[in-house]
Amino acid sequence: MELKNIFKMEMYKNWSNRPYLIVIAILTVMAAAATFLGVAMVEEVFTEKTSTLLIFLIPLIVFFVLGLVTFSILFPFHLLNTDYKNRVISLIFASGVSREKYYFVKISATILTYFTTWFVIWLIPIVTFSFFYDPFDAENPIQTVIKFFAATFQPLAFMQYWEANVFLTVLSVFLSILSNILILTTSVIITKGKVAGIFLYFGFLFTLSTIQSMISLPLLLVGAGLGTFNSDSYTNMMNWGIVSSIVQIVGFALLGLWVLRKQDL
Q1: 121 phi and psi angles, rounded to 5 deg
Q2: Distance (Å, rounded) from C-alpha 68 to C-alpha 8?
């Protein structure tokens, strides 16, 4: 079977699950509603109903965040473990598809589907805020929230320097998401698609975050405590995040492929 056809088959399977499509639609509506309510409050469109809007906005944001976090874990897990759960992965390999092709196509289809869903969910908020506010304006609501957290929690002081290097910030976030998907992929392969893969995934994350914190957090705290943390420090933090994410991507990609090659299916 050609690589192109395998990829098309994976993408078709990814977008054929109605329950998850419904969840994506619900999260998209919630994000749009929270955005419109938030902008209406900031712009004082309904000056006499601000408290009423706030009553709806706070729980809406809370449920949206909880739903998005849960979805961000369960959706890629579902995409990755479908063939294990349906017991068709051995048939796929028996049909002549090499494990290496299947592995990289599966990861590619999962990554593309995952980022597409995030684009759909966040499209309306991004377009709306970009229309009303300049993202680099120090007075816009997003910058105000960032500065609040940076001032309230000293270890998060680096947040206010995100605009010092937008490219590094976006690249660091992108690679971090990719590394998480690779870690989840490896966890699914090791556990053969069982629910235990989620717990293994969290175990990997905890171990890696502990190691990263041992290296980066002391430097961050010292810099912030001495009042010397600046845009250069932020750039260094982003560079460290990029390097660590690349190491994780390569390491877990090789580990997952090695386990899949050795696996008795």
Answers
A1: -65, -40
A2: 27
Return the structure tokens found at 167: 């490219």
CA 179 to the chain's CA centroid: 10
Residues 261, 145, single domain; the answer is yes
Q: Cα torsion at 78, 80, 83, 84 (round to 10°)?
A: -90
Are residues 157 and 61 part of one domain?
Answer: no
- Concatenating the DSSP letter of every residue in 25-81 gives HHHHHHHHHHHHHHHHHHTTTTGGGHHHHHHHHHHHHHHHHHHHHHHHHHHHHHHHH
Whole-angstrom Cα distance, residue 187 to residue 80? Answer: 10
Burial (CB count <10 Å: 0-12, 13-18, 19+), residue 31: buried
Residues 148 and 250 in one domain: yes
Q: Output the pTM of the full model.
A: 0.82
Angle between helices 231-262 and 166-190 (to 10 degrees): 20
| Residue 106 host element (H or E) | helix 99-132
Q: Which of 111, 132, 153 is the last residue of a domain?
A: 132
Lookup: tokens for 22: 């419904």
Smallest CA-to-CA distance from 241 within 150, 141, 165 is with 165
Q: Is 137 helix (H, G, I), strand (E, B) or coil?
A: coil
CA dist 30 and 82 (Å) reads 27
Tell me the per-residue pLDDT of 156-190, one tens digit each, with 9 for 90 and over. 555 555 555 677 778 888 999 999 999 999 999 99
